[in-house]
Amino acid sequence: RYDEGQSNEGAAFVFLGSASGIADGSPASAHARFESDQANAWMGTAVDGAGDVNGDGFADVLVGAYKYDAGQTDEGAVFVFLGNGRTGRPVVAQQSRGDLTPLPVQPWGGSDASDSFVVNLTATHPNGRGRVKLEVEYCPAGVSFGDVSCGSQISAAWLLVAPPGSSVQLDEQITGLTADTLYRWRARVLRAPATVTHAGVTSAPLPPHGPWRRVNAQSREGDVRTVLLPEAAGSLMLLVGCVALYGLNRRRSG
User: Fold this and answer.
1) DSSP secondary structure string for all residues of 99-115
2) Alpha helices of the chain — where are they, by DSSP H?
3) Where residue 121 falls among pLDDT bands split at 50, 70, 90?
4) 110: which strand partners?
5) Confidence band of 175 (pLDDT split at 50, 70, 90)
6) 8 Å CB contact between 9 and 41
7) Cα–Cα distance between 221 and 144 in angstroms, integer?
8) How many CA atoms lie within 13 A of 48 on its CB side?
9) Strand, helix or coil at 32?
10) Mind giving me the DSSP string for 209-238?
C-alpha cells in the first residue's frame, strides 16, 4: 500500500547485499524501486526470485500486484523484471541427470545416479571465433566455494565457437561423488584462441574466463542430490517390505 504518486499503488524495493550484510536505511536508499503507477494496485503484495527467465545468467525478479487493472477491474498481475535489464546472450546454466540422459534436474532434485551429475552451460566467445572449455567447482551442501573439501573439473577438449553469433553447448559429467549426498556447484567458461588446438600451440596456464554461473542464477539453490547405491536402495526396499508384512501379520493375529 505504498504511496508514490498514486494512493496505495504499492512498490517493491531492492537492497543490495554485501559481505557484511544489508546496510541500514530507508526506501530512499534502495538500489531499485518497482512501482505500479496505478492507484490501489497494491504492488509488492508478493515478491520472489524468478530464477533466470531469459537464460542470460542473471537472476530475475517477480513482483505481484493483486489488484492491478489491465482490462478488468482488480484482476491482478505479476511482473517480471530482468536482472540484466535487457536480453543478453543466453547462458542457460542447468544440471541434468548423471546417467547422461539429457533430462534436467530441478534444484535439490535427484541426479538419478549414485556418484555423478552433469553440468550444462551455453558458451560464446567474446572474439566471435575461438575455443571454449567448461570449468566446474562442486562442494558438499553448506560448504563455501573454494574450501579444501570442494572438487573441481575442467572439460578435456577445446570446442570451437564460430561466428556469426554462434554458441556451443558445454556438458561436463561430474563423477566420483558420494551416494545419497547433496552438492552445490558453480561453472564458468574458459576461453582461448581458435588456434589453441594446432600442433605446437598451448593455452595459457590460467586462460581467460567468464564469470561463475549458478543454475537459476543463484536465485534459488542449485544443489543436486546423488541417489542411493542400487544395493542400498534394494536393502531399504526389502526392509520396508518386511516392516509392512510384520504389521499386516499383527493385524491379522489381533
Assistant:
1) TS---B--TTEE-SSSS
2) 230-253
3) very high
4) 225
5) very high
6) yes
7) 13
8) 9
9) strand
10) B---B-GGGGSS---EEPPPPHHHHHHHHH
